[in-house]
Write a structure and sequence with these properties.
By secondary structure, the protein is an alpha+beta fold. The chain is 29% helix and 29% strand.
């Protein structure tokens, strides 16, 4: 089946404003992610303005500031889209990478990938890759903001872009890269306990078993970079602080990864 991919035009993107989000969990997430994105440029009081006249002026100004901040952020090696459905029971979009991939084969990830010349900024990279991997239309995305850079195990800088998407989109996995699309119940994820996940780690021709936090979501194990991104999202939005570690099994030695 051939799918016509839509280009991600930064000038046509929209921002989801907290004041217009009814769902309390998503509204709080939007407030905090956007405050983090703007750093100290916008006060929390302005974010929560209730006067209609003030709100109209604020909405346009706030959207411009968010987009300007995203546009001016230094370009990372790669960007991922942390996409959450805007509905009464929000869901977080996740994928399982194909088993034949050269890197992160079979691992759970957010949609996204490497920066390409012509993208111009991290948001376009995340949206372009999301469209290529799942046919997610960029015009169905409302931006919330961005999270701090994470570093992959290969040393790449990865910028998470947080956004709301319409529910029930007809997403299709690009089988060359993605073997499965699935969803995490977002409100469950906020409080869901992590469990230790054991993996083999090879360094200098020696292999050790290491353990790290993870979540079990719809039969898949969410760990690694994707787990760190989600953990940071939960800390930013809901003050949930998780100790994200990589520890050699049965020792007190931790690996910096």
């Amino acid at each position: 089946m051939s799918i016509a991919l839509q280009s991600a035009n930064f000038d046509n993107l929209s921002v989801a404003l907290p004041s217009f989000i009814r769902h309390p969990t998503l509204r709080q997430l939007a407030e905090r992610v956007q405050y983090e994105t703007l750093n100290t440029l916008v006060s929390p009081e302005l974010m929560l303005a209730q006067n209609d006249e003030q709100l109209g002026h604020y909405s346009e100004l706030h959207s411009q500031r968010i987009l300007q901040s995203l546009y001016q952020t230094p370009i990372a090696d790669a960007s991922v889209l942390v996409a959450i459905t805007r509905e009464s029971r929000p869901k977080l979009l996740l994928t399982r990478r194909a088993d034949h991939m050269n890197s992160h084969a079979g691992e759970v990830s957010c949609v996204g990938g490497k920066y390409e010349l012509g993208d111009g900024n991290n948001v376009v990279t995340a949206l372009r890759e999301a469209c290529e991997e799942t046919a997610l239309p960029p015009n169905k995305v409302q931006l919330l903001g961005q999270l701090p850079i994470q570093t992959s195990k290969s040393g790449m800088s990865v910028r998470p872009i947080v956004a709301l998407i319409a529910p029930d989109l007809p997403l299709v996995p690009e089988m060359g890269e993605i073997s499965r699309i699935f969803w995490a119940d977002f409100e469950t994820l906020i409080t869901q306990p992590t469990i230790e996940y054991a993996i083999d780690y090879t360094m200098l021709e020696q292999t050790a078993k290491i353990v790290t936090p993870s979540w079990e979501v719809d039969g898949e194990t969410v760990w690694g970079l994707t787990g760190k991104v989600i953990a940071n999202l939960l800390e930013t939005g809901f003050d949930r602080r998780l100790d994200w570690y990589y520890r050699i099994q049965n020792t007190d030695i931790e690996l910096d990864r």
